Amino acid sequence: MKKTAKTAKAPAHYQHPLALVESDRVGAGTRVWAFAHVMKGAHIGRDCNIGDHAFVESGARIGNGVTIKNGVAIWEGVTLHDFVFAGPNVVFTNDLRPRSPRFPGGKLRYKDKSWLGKTDVKRGASIGANATVVCGVTIGEFAMIGSGAVVTKNVPAHALWLGVPGKLAGYVCECGEKLSFKDDKARCKACRSTFIKRGSRVKKAV
C-alpha cells in the first residue's frame, strides 16, 4: 500500500498572510492581523484579537478574549488576564532603569533577570489609547485607564484612573458605565448591577 505524505495540521487560530507568528501557544479562535509579530515563547489564549503592527514578546502572557489594538507592544513580564482591552498605541514597559545592553556597563546589569519589572492587568480591565503603564504595577479587575494616562502605581478594581500621573477619578461598572455611590452603595444605571464600596475597594454585590 502506497504511503501518503503527512500534511501539516492547520493552526486553530487565524493569522493574516503578512503577520509573523513564531509561537505555538496561540489559542483557537484568536486572530492576528497584518504586520503583527508574535515571538516564540509568547502565550496567547483563545478568541483574542491582535491588531495591525502589534508586537508580543517572548515571555508575555495573554489570557482568553483579550483585545489588543493597533501598535501595542506586550513585553516579557506583562500579563494580560482574560477580557482585557488595550487601546491603540498603549505603552507597556518592563524595566524601571533601562540602559542599552550594548553599553559596556549595561552588560553587567542584564546578566540575569533581576532587572525585569512585572505588570499584571487583571480580568476585564481596559486601558485607553496612548496610555503608558510603568512596570511593577497591578491594574485591578474591570478598572478603566483613561486615554493618555500614565499609570505609576497600583490601580484598584473598578477604578476610573485619569491624568498624568494617573489618579483615582471614580469607579466604573463591569459594563463601563461610571458609578455614583451613596452610602457606599451604587447601582449601575445601564445594566442595573449593584456595587458596594469599602474604603477604596469596590465589589459587585452578589
List the helices and strands and how they pair.
Elements: E1 14-15, E2 20-21, E3 31-32, E4 37-38, E5 43-44, E6 49-50, E7 55-56, E8 61-62, E9 67-68, E10 73-74, E11 78-80, E12 85-86, E13 91-92, H1 104-109, E14 119-121, E15 126-127, E16 132-133, E17 138-139, E18 144-145, E19 150-151, E20 159-162, E21 167-172, E22 178-179, E23 185-187, E24 194-198, E25 201-204
Parallel strand pairs: 1-3, 2-4, 3-6, 4-7, 5-8, 6-9, 7-10, 8-11, 9-12, 11-14, 12-15, 13-16, 14-17, 15-18, 16-19, 18-20
Antiparallel strand pairs: 20-21, 21-22, 23-24, 24-25
Q: What do these coordinates show?
A:
The chain has 206 residues and is an all-beta fold. It has a single domain, classed as Hexapeptide repeat proteins (UDP N-Acetylglucosamine Acyltransferase, domain 1), CATH 2.160.10.10. Helices cover 3% and strands 31% of the residues. The chain has 1 helix and 25 strands. The strands form 5 sheets. The protein has a 10-stranded mixed sheet, with no helix packed on it. The longest helix is centred in the middle third of the chain and has 6 residues.
